[in-house]
Design a protein that fits this description.
The structure holds 2 protein chains of 2 kinds. Chain A is an alpha/beta fold. Chain A folds into 2 domains: about 325 residues, Thiamin diphosphate (ThDP)-binding fold, Pyr/PP domains (Rossmann fold, 3-Layer(aba) Sandwich), CATH 3.40.50.970; about 35 residues. Helices cover about 45% and strands about 10% of the residues of chain A. Chain A contains 13 helices and 7 strands. A 5-stranded parallel sheet of chain A has the order 1-2-3-7-6, with helices on both faces. In chain A, a hairpin with a 2-residue loop joins strand 4 and strand 5. In chain A, helix 2 crosses helix 3 and helix 2 packs parallel to helix 12. The N terminus of chain A is likely disordered. In chain B, strands 3-2-4-5-7-6-12 form a 7-stranded mixed sheet, sandwiched between helices. The longest helix of chain B has 15 residues. Chain B is globular, with a radius of gyration of 20 Å. Chain B starts with a helix and ends with a helix. The relative contact order of chain B is 0.12. The chains are: A alpha/beta, B alpha/beta. Chains A and B meet through helix 5 and helix 13 of A and helix 12 of B. Bound molecules: thiamine diphosphate and magnesium ion.
Chain lengths: ~375, ~375
């Protein structure tokens, strides 16, 4: 069994920059061009910087896992453009419901990356307060569950008048991430049904990285996944997810439409998981070197550097970004090593909002039990 | 979200046990028949050696290989079980051996896996479904409880549901959320399901074959923290029947009861107790539903004291059921109340806290002391 690799060059895929870095919008890109026209040099540099920082962080986190400092790491290598582009399309008032691989999105929303590491170190089940971190909600490990939460949240925005009022500065929308594998879950279909039914202000962002652990996307869908929404009444667009500008433009357009009250949309970003599924996975067991190599050639960062060079961006800037990325990774490493163990009492906290006698009794029992060891010592 | 580093080492020694290397059944099973194949186990053939030392996970693999070879209606289905051989490599090599019509990767949807297994069973197949981790069975909970468990009953006996749902369960693997849970009580509470949990490689090898031969749905809990623990497997002498409990260690002063990974913890506690002069009898339940109370009651009549250990939270749990039943049936033999040593009634904590959450041998001993103090 091998993966179907859909070529981003095929007709309906929105692409702005070719894999070798040339500005050459596909036919389907026409309606998205206005969204990139408003970007300045500063924005492009920011896109680049974030992709590089994320790539470096990814390497550092995998090292930390290998050294026993994390239970697990979930690599995002190869998916930086899909994540950075889509994240920049969201406005501060928007809410983001990630799956578990959207580290760059969290970073752009202001999340301290060490918060993600705390979760993967086994120190916490959550790690951050969404409202204090750019409305970036918690990771969800049960596949596709968050798609329904996102739809419900968007229904709430509609009900409390936070969306569709015609004021683009305040109208909000929801951006929800999920994978090609998760697209098969019933929850995903149900969330599309609800979103269409209530015309929620919401964008479904499907990163098709071609694999669900060892299972190729062909096992999940015989038709391109961007078509999945149409049967539910949710329009779909396919974008070259390794093209950061296209990912930005397509997401910006559909989020604008969602905020304006035009209902939900589905975006399929074609990309590739270059790394392992997680640090516990061995991808050589199920995919070929050739397939991997063909996607490494379409690397989103390499493409964007080439593009920036055509725009005259100097080497000093690129070097400075590399240095900054290394510093950020070092800083994260240093702070992870300082993380102490959580206190045992933590597990009894916030199980309920109201007092609960059984939990209280067990917490007291455990405290006495631990003390009894202290006495013996 | 896998813990598979060790599995790669495991993969190297994936020799099937002697006598199990049968050719894959090539032909498609005849469609349209509702005849559950209830012949006796393809007993492992008799070529020596028949006692092999192998890890728990390998024993399961060998058991499934034997079941696939014995009955070409047996199918394995699940996420990542084909070319990868499962995230724990429990099905490693089986697709290569039996083909992708017998052993196949499904789309990523647990309700889909169990729901279609029900249809396959109606059509005469014996599906063995792998759920990747305990925390991911719940999308299938509706199909399991409202459909699978009562399908035979609704058909007034006209249909059988020979489906096995394999679920790696339990903690102590330092993993992330939803990868360490013990949800067995939900299933044991559901009439129509059989629920088992082997604790040793030998039981893994035999119980998986018995479960696959069962004409009822079996929820098969695998103690994932023991996948790499080695033990002796006798491929010629079948283990005790599927739904019987087993004395794992004899003793006279107190009875310790558990299943799955907890059995090892109880045995460790019994060792420690012995050093302090207390003789503990350890019972490996093996089957959670039905529960073989005979040996438990017999032991309690001898020791007068019972401590039940389990990784799952205690409230409305398997341990609760055991405590109630023993109080009902052996009341006058008891010298002390039945004590339950369980996880706390909180969500499974982040892994840095799991050692304080799951009962260890010390907590079992604390209960033993309390029991002896009555
Ligand atoms: C309900 C559920 N079933 C199974 C799993 C185990 N699992 C974790 S990730 C994964 C593959 C997900 O693939 P995809 O949705 O394509 O996302 P990707 O990992 O490629 O980003 C599986 C099977 C899970 N987390 N949740
Ligand atoms: Mg994927």
């Amino acid at each position: 069994m091998s993966a179907t690799i859909d070529s981003p060059g095929s007709t309906p895929t929105v692409q702005l920059v070719t894999p070798d870095g040339r500005w050459q919008p596909s036919d389907s890109a026409e309606e998205y061009l206005p969204y990139v026209e408003s970007l300045g040099e500063h924005d492009l540099k920011r896109f680049y910087r974030d992709m590089v920082v994320m790539r470096q962080f990814d390497t550092e986190a995998a090292n930390l896992q290998r050294q026993g400092q994390l239970a697990l790491w979930v690599p995002s290598h190869g998916q930086e453009a899909a994540q950075v582009g889509s994240a920049y399309a969201a406005r501060p008032q928007d809410h983001i419901f990630p799956s578990y691989r959207e580290h760059a999105v969290g970073m752009i929303r202001g999340l301290d990356m060490v918060d993600i590491l705390r979760m993967l170190r086994g120190v916490t089940l959550g790690g951050w307060v969404p409202e204090e971190n750019g409305n970036f909600h918690l990771y969800t490990l049960v596949l596709a569950s968050q798609t329904l939460h996102a739809t419900g949240y968007a229904m709430g925005m509609q009900l409390d008048g936070s969306s569709g009022t015609g004021n683009p500065e305040t109208d909000a929308a929801v951006l929800v991430y999920f994978g090609d594998g998760a697209s098969s879950q019933g929850d995903t279909s149900e969330s599309l049904v609800f979103a269409a039914s209530y015309q929620t202000p919401q964008v479904f962002f499907l990163q098709n990285n071609h694999w669900a652990i060892s299972v190729p996307v062909a096992r999940q869908s015989r038709t391109p996944l961007y078509l999945r929404g149409s049967g539910f009444g949710v329009p779909g667009t396919r974008v070259d997810g390794n093209d950061v500008l296209a990912s930005y433009a397509v997401t910006a357009k559909w989020l604008d439409d969602a905020r304006a009250g035009h209902g939900p949309a589905l975006i399929e970003a074609l990309t590739y998981r270059v790394g392992a599924h997680t640090t516990a996975d061995d991808p050589t067991k199920y995919r070929t070197d050739d397939e991997l190599a063909s996607w490494v050639q379409r690397d989103p960062i390499v493409r964007f550097v080439a593009h920036l060079r055509t725009l005259g961006v100097e080497q000093e800037f690129l070097d400075a970004v590399d240095q900054e990325a290394a510093d950020i990774a070092d800083d994260a490493r240093r702070r992870v090593l300082q993380l102490g163990p959580p206190s045992v009492g933590r597990m009894f906290e916030n199980v309920y909002a109201e007092p609960h006698p059984l939990v209280e009794e067990q917490q007291e029992w455990l405290a006495r039990y631990e003390e009894s060891f202290g006495e013996q010592a | 979200m896998i813990q598979t580093d060790e599995t790669r080492g495991l993969a190297v020694e994936s020799q099937p046990p002697a006598g199990q290397q049968q050719p894959a059944a090539e032909q498609e099973p005849p469609a349209g028949q509702q005849q559950p194949s209830a012949e006796p186990a393809a007993p492992a053939q008799s070529d020596p050696p028949t006692r092999l030392t192998m890890p728990f996970g390998k024993a399961l693999n060998a058991g499934m290989r034997a079941a696939l070879a014995a009955d070409d209606h047996v199918l394995l289905m699940g996420e990542d079980i084909g070319p990868l051989g499962g995230v724990y490599r429990i099905t490693e090599g089986l697709q290569a051996e039996f083909g992708d019509k017998r052993v196949f990767d499904t789309p990523l949807a647990e309700s889909g896996i169990v729901g279609t297994a029900i249809g396959l069973a109606m059509r005469g197949f014996r599906p063995v479904c792998e759920i990747q981790f305990d925390g991911f069975v719940f999308p299938a909970f509706d199909q399991i409880t409202t459909q699978l468990a009562r399908m035979r009953n609704r058909h007034e006996g006209g249909v059988t549901m020979p489906i096995v749902i394999r679920i790696p369960f339990g903690g102590s693997i330092g993993s992330i959320e939803h990868h360490s849970e013990s949800p067995e009580a939900y299933f044991a509470h559901t009439p129509g399901l059989r629920v088992v949990a082997p604790a040793t490689p030998n039981d893994a090898y035999w119980m998986i074959q018995d479960a696959i031969r069962s004409n009822d749905p079996v929820i098969f809990f695998e103690p994932k923290s023991r996948y790499f623990t080695k033990g002796e497997v006798d491929t010629t002498v079948p283990a005790a029947p599927l739904h019987t409990s087993r004395i794992a260690r004899e003793g006279t002063d107190v009875t310790l009861v558990g299943y799955g990974a907890m059995v090892d913890t109880l045995l460790r506690a019994a060792d420690l107790a012995a050093a302090e002069g207390t003789s503990a009898e350890v019972i490996d339940l093996r089957s959670i539903s039905p529960l073989d109370f005979g040996p438990v009651l017999e032991s309690v009549r001898k020791t007068g004291r019972l401590v039940v250990g389990q990784e799952a939270p205690g409230f409305v749990s398997v341990a609760s059921e055991i405590a109630a039943t023993v109080a009902e049936r052996a009341f006058y033999s008891l010298e002390a109340p039945v004590l339950r040593v369980t996880a706390f009634d909180t969500p499974y904590p982040p892994s840095k806290l799991e050692h304080g959450f799951i009962p260890d041998a010390d907590r079992i001993l604390e209960a033993v002391d309390r029991s002896l103090a009555y």
